[in-house]
Write a structure and sequence with these properties.
By secondary structure, the protein is mostly helical. About 50% of the residues lie in helices and about 10% in strands.
Length: about 110
C-alpha cells in the first residue's frame, strides 16, 4: 500500500471507516518499534488548508482510534500536535487539547 486516496470534503464516518480499514493491517505489516503520530488538526472542517470536513468529535474519535489500535497491537506511540490553519484560536487550542484527552483515556484503558 503506497497511499490511500481521501475524497475532498470527506466527513467523520467515512474517514474513520477508511482509517479502520487500513491502520491495523499497516501496523501488522510494518511492525514498527515506535509509532510517531502527528495528530494534526488540518482535516478539520474549519481549516483553511485542509480539504477534509472532520468535526471536533471526528478528530477526537480519530485520535482515540489511532491510539487504541496502536496500543492493542502492542506498539508504543509518541504523539505531537500539529497543523491548524484557522482564525479561531480558541477552537484551535481546543482541537489540539483533544490529543491529550484521548491519550489520557486510552492509556487508562490499557493501564500502561
Amino acid at each position: 500500500m503506497s497511499h490511500v486516496a481521501l475524497s475532498v470534503g470527506m466527513e467523520d464516518d467515512e474517514y474513520l471507516q477508511t482509517l479502520a480499514k487500513y491502520l491495523a493491517d499497516l501496523l501488522s505489516d510494518v511492525k514498527p518499534d515506535l509509532v510517531l503520530y502527528d495528530a494534526g488538526v488540518d482535516p478539520h472542517q474549519g481549516d483553511k488548508l485542509g480539504k477534509l470536513a472532520l468535526t471536533d468529535t471526528g478528530l477526537f474519535r480519530r485520535k482515540m482510534q489511532v491510539l487504541s489500535t496502536c496500543l492493542a497491537g502492542g506498539y508504543p506511540v509518541a504523539c505531537v500536535i500539529g497543523g491548524g490553519y484557522c482564525d479561531d484560536m480558541n477552537g484551535l487550542v481546543y482541537r489540539h487539547s483533544l490529543l491529550h484527552r484521548a491519550a489520557s483515556q486510552t492509556y487508562r484503558q490499557y493501564k500502561l
